[in-house]
Amino acid sequence: MKIKRGIILLTVMVVGIMLYVYSVNAGLFINSSHGNSTYGVYRTSIANKGYSRGNCTHCHEQHASIDNAEPDPASGSPSNYALFYDNYINQTDGVCLQCHTEVGSYQQGGLVNRSYSYRAGGWTNDTLNDIEEAFTFSSTSTPPGTSHHLDDIRTFITGKWGYTADSNPCVACHNPHAATGDPANAPNSPKSAANRGYPISRPSMHSKDSNAWGVWGDAVNEKMNSYTANYQAPYRYNSTTSYEPDGSTVQDGSNLTDFVSFCTDCHNTTYNSIYSTPLGRNLRTIDWANEKHGQGAPDRSLSRDAPYGNSTGLVLSCTDCHEPHGSTNQVLIRPEVNGGTLSGTITTIYSPDTPTTRPFTDSNKEIGYLCQRCHMDDYDYNTSCQPNRWYYAHHATSNNPYTAWRCWNCHPSGGGPPSCNTDVAAINCNTCHFHGATISSTNNGTVRGF
Ligand code: HEC
Ligand code: HEC
Ligand code: HEC
Ligand code: HEC
Ligand code: HEC
Ligand code: HEC
Ligand code: HEC
Ligand code: HEC
Predict the structure, then answer these.
(1) How many angstroms separate the CA atoms of 59 and 99, rounded?
(2) Which residue from 129, 140, 213, 422 lies 20 to 30 Å from 441 (Cα-Cα)?
């Protein structure tokens, strides 16, 4: 029965493609990176048959009419959607990654792509140079790291927004018939105001009709300043005059895709059982309307590193801290944030659930490498204190959202003389700082906060 279904599917596909060409040609595809006649899709074996660069046939083959040598679908039967390779196999294999890899690519010459820290952050020292590599990061990779787990994404989207079990998890976030490069055809350049494009499409707007499923971020109401009037762009790498994402002086998010609406299509409070294989548990939910780094108001007024300063009510984008594909840090934390690299690698994120059983060591403070990029650590307050120590952050103000003299809530063995240079163990940062943490001002239990 499987073969029969394959043939029916194929027939539907061929007719579908023929009908489609009219509308697609006139529309998005020709403007997409894949459909571009100068730098679009190009497999040598297909070009040898006379198909021009950017033709659908470089991805879709009707096996009856195109008798070419490479490659048969790995499953042995015609691929879904009549693609030249299985739509999706696993984290490091599938039709997209057969081209989006630097070496051994079906795309003539291979494809170099970069991290978000490189392209938006302007951190051109990043050696990560293709999409396959970004999705290879795991607890057992060399170097170790994390990547968005594609099997879990596929499970999550199946049955939602018109996706099926045959859908490609890359297509949860990208429309292969519409995506444009940012920058296009410039793999070794960061984003630039002169050459913008829009690689993503929102999963909640997914439609099988490519013309109906446009890219996200190009329209005025799809920008970060449409989500919030209180966005402050981080600096570009090594600069205090140019800002993410495109290196211009624009700081209000009017040139940034609204990534909050994009990421929270999935990471919100409705979908409270998103399973994560790498983490071995369901993800915590994210309520950006209330979190302090989201639209929630801060409790007190401590100054922060430039360009954030003393402003209150600021709202961050998910991509100010997270990579979309993969990272050498835990939970996709960017290696470069707000104009500089993290001072170390974040190898461990602790579960907040059993706070008192863990000793306080420097490794328990790795998350501080991230906070340091935007918040003032003890060294920033006073150069006779140490970097990535956080005495001031928790003791410097009087308007704390917790009862400061309850030393034992935060220090397992009570407090000690109050000074930034006294070694006093505190429970690890993740006990209190994680998405969705709350603070109990009555202090009848654990003190928490993002
Ligand atoms: C970069 C490779 C690529 C190119 C080029 C490409 N497609 Fe596709 N197409 C795909 C993938 C991958 C899918 C499967 C999408 C999914 O998993 O939902 C697909 C799906 C489709 C579908 C089924 C739509 C759906 O979501 O059910 C049609 C129809 C289609 N393509 C037509 C075309 C036409 C016509 C062209 C040229 C104008 C074209 N494609 C060019 C990769 C490509
Ligand atoms: C969870 C959503 C998500 C998934 C899944 C995802 N991506 Fe992305 N991808 C993004 C985001 C966000 C960006 C950055 C967009 C921007 O810079 O505006 C991006 C950027 C890209 C870029 C552009 C990079 C550059 O150098 O310009 C490519 C190519 C890409 N993704 C391919 C893929 C492929 C192939 C897969 C599957 C193996 C995939 N993506 C899976 C969200 C995703
Ligand atoms: C036949 C080879 C091929 C396949 C298969 C392919 N791509 Fe591409 N892709 C390209 C080329 C070529 C470009 C343009 C590169 C450039 O800008 O120079 C591109 C560009 C992109 C871009 C725009 C960002 C950029 O680098 O310019 C995204 C996003 C993207 N591809 C995602 C995907 C996804 C998702 C899939 C699978 C559904 C896929 N691609 C499959 C060849 C391919
Ligand atoms: C299509 C749905 C979808 C979208 C859109 C999406 N995610 Fe995810 N995300 C998932 C799923 C499913 C998981 C669980 C699998 C995993 O851990 O990677 C996940 C996991 C994560 C994790 C934990 C990764 C780990 O294993 O440590 C982070 C961090 C994350 N997402 C951030 C983001 C950010 C930032 C964006 C926007 C750029 C985003 N996600 C967009 C579905 C999505
Ligand atoms: C990209 C910059 C950036 C990074 C990285 C960052 N923060 Fe923040 N943080 C801010 C900004 C900006 C605010 C102010 C938000 C507002 O005005 O509502 C803030 C506010 C806070 C608040 C609320 C303070 C109050 O007065 O209520 C806490 C708590 C906090 N951050 C903790 C952390 C921790 C812990 C880390 C590291 C895990 C971290 N932040 C990393 C930019 C950042
Ligand atoms: C809200 C939780 C909290 C409360 C309550 C609290 N502390 Fe702290 N304290 C911390 C954290 C977190 C640090 C930073 C630890 C680090 O960076 O190594 C810290 C740092 C310190 C340090 C510097 C330690 C070092 O190694 O740099 C001293 C001393 C200290 N606290 C004493 C006290 C005393 C005394 C009290 C009670 C009067 C108290 N703390 C109450 C959270 C708290
Ligand atoms: C016992 C709980 C607890 C622990 C452990 C803890 N913090 Fe905090 N932290 C808090 C609370 C509560 C606040 C204030 C939150 C607020 O004002 O909204 C805070 C505030 C912060 C801030 C924001 C300062 C500002 O601008 O207002 C940073 C940054 C921070 N902590 C980093 C760390 C780091 C790094 C560690 C580990 C060394 C750590 N914290 C450990 C409870 C804790
Ligand atoms: C200030 C930096 C910062 C920003 C902005 C930020 N995150 Fe995170 N994110 C973190 C840190 C640190 C962790 C690890 C602690 C934790 O699990 O909450 C994390 C963890 C996660 C996780 C894994 C949660 C789990 O169950 O362990 C997901 C999913 C995630 N973030 C998604 C998002 C999304 C979606 C947004 C935007 C709406 C966002 N993040 C914005 C810093 C940030």
Answers:
(1) 10
(2) 422
Q: Which pair of tokens denotes residue 363?
A: 């490794």
- Which residue puts its alpha carbon closest to atom 28 of ligand 5? 450
Q: Which two tokens stand for residue 427?
A: 């429970």
Q: Is 406 or 255 the better-scoring residue by pLDDT?
A: 255
Length of the chain in residues, anyone? 450
**Measured from the CB, is residue 379 less than 6 Å from ligand 5?**
no
Return all residues near 291 (Cβ < 8 A) that are at least 6 apart.
435, 436, 450
CA 259 to CA 145: how far, in whole Å? 22
Rounded-to-integer distance, Cα 373 and Cα 123, Å: 14
Q: Which two tokens stand for residue 97?
A: 């990654």
Whose Cα sits closest to atom 15 in ligand 8?
A: 434
Provide φ and ψ at 94, rounded to 5°. 160, 170
Alpha-carbon 206 to chain mean position: 19
Q: What is the pLDDT of residues 217-265, one digit of tens each?
A: 999 999 999 999 999 999 999 999 999 999 999 999 999 999 999 999 9
Binned at pLDDT 50, 70 and 90, residue 129 comes out as very high
pLDDT of 94 higher than 60 = yes
Which contacts of 270-277 are long-range, i.e. CB under 8 A and separated by 24 or more positions?
271/156, 274/152, 274/156, 275/152, 275/155, 275/156, 276/149, 276/152, 277/149, 277/151, 277/152
Compute the distance from residue 389 Cα to the ligand 6 centre, in Å: 10
Q: Assign residue 326 a region (left: φ > 0; alpha: ψ between -120 and 50; beta: otherwise).
A: beta
184 lines ligand 3 (CB under 6 A): yes
Cβ proximity of 422 and 431 under 8 Å: no
What is d(CA 311, CA 327) in angstroms, rounded to the nearest whole number?
A: 30
Per-residue pLDDT of 263-322, as tens digits, reads 999 999 999 899 999 999 999 999 999 999 999 988 887 899 999 999 889 999 999 999
CB 53 within 8 A of CB 40: yes
Q: Write out the two tokens for 22.
A: 């009219």
**Rounded distance, CA 63 to CA 221, Å?**
42
Contacts made by residues 51-54, CB under 8 angstroms, sequence distance 24+: 54/30
Show Cβ contacts of residue 232 under 8 Å, excluding neighbours closer than 6 positions.
251, 252, 307, 308, 311, 314
Distance in Å, CA 267 to ligand 8 centroid: 10
